[in-house]
Amino acid sequence: MATTSFTKKSLGLESVEPAVTPPTNNTSTSFAKKPKLSSSKSRKKEIPEGLWVKCPKCSTMLYDKELDENLKVCQHCHHHFPIGARERIHSLVETCSFQEMDADLSSDDPLKFPSYPEKIESYQKSTGFKDAVITGIGKLGHHKVALGVMDFSFLGGSMGSVVGEKLTRLIEAGTSKSLPVIIISTSGGARMYEGMFSLMQMAKTCAALSYHAKSRLPYISILTHPTYAGVMASFASVGDLNLAEPGAMIGFAGPRVIKDTTQSELPAGFQTAEFLLEHGLIDAIVPRKEMKDRLIYYLDFMLEGQRQIAAVA
Ligand SMILES: [Zn+2]
Question: Cα of 79 to ligand 1 centre, how many Å?
Answer without folding.
Answer: 5
